[in-house]
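Note to self: keep these together.
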Amino acid sequence: MNRNHALLLLSECTGDDIWSVEYCLQRSVPEAWIRKLQDAYESGFDCLDSQIFFQGQVVNQFEGVRDVDLACMIAQSLKLDVRRIVQRYSTRAGVVRAIREELEEG
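Structure:
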C-alpha cells in the first residue's frame, strides 16, 4: 500500500468504528486484509460506548473490520513499530491518532 492511500484511509479511522466489508472494498482496502481482520461483533447494552450503530440504529450484531485493526495493519505494512504504539496508548483512538501522526511526520 502506498503512503498516500494509507493516509487517506487513516484519515477516516477513529479507533471506535467498524467498517462494513462493502465499505472496505469501496475504499480499496486489500481483500487479504479484509479476510484477516473481518469478524462479527455484538453490541453490549450495558453502556452507550459498547453499542454498535448502523445507519443511526442500534444493531445486535455487525460483521466488519474494526478501524483500529485496519490502522494497525496499515502501520505494520509501512514498517511502523505497531507494538510500541499500542503499548504506549491506552485507547483505540489514541493508537489511531499516533499511527496517523507518525505517518504524517515520516
